[in-house]
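Sequence in, structure out.
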Amino acid sequence: MNGTYSCTCSPGYHGHTCQHPCKSGYYGYNCSKQCQCTRHGTCDLATGHCNCKRGYHGTYCELGCSPGYFGYNCAQKCQCKNGVSCDGGTGLCNCTLGWTGAMCNKPCSWNIWGVNCTLNCSCSKSAKYCDRFTGKCICFPGYVGE
């Protein structure tokens, strides 16, 4: 039997035989609705629901993680120590002055200081230790100088 036919596509698809998914930024029947997700999320082709990237949450993925949380929908709690925050996407701790380690729970050794303990102190052997927060040499009793 000759004639024309047309397909009724499922939400998220279009085309003569429903072979094409919606282009980016559109969803629904015949891809007629515009997605409202921010650049921090992707739109479900059928429903328009925003699927947030790591480090973001909210209806439209418009909100970054609150301090102390990370991951998809910011559902995971950071394990950082010493008042250190973590990266909202990866959960990696951002160590502050004087601390190092995966959870920023290890103090710098006696001759190293700075963020993530990356700076060498210039103290002489007569120094008791190097202040891990300032890099200042702390002398043994009876010694003076920088």
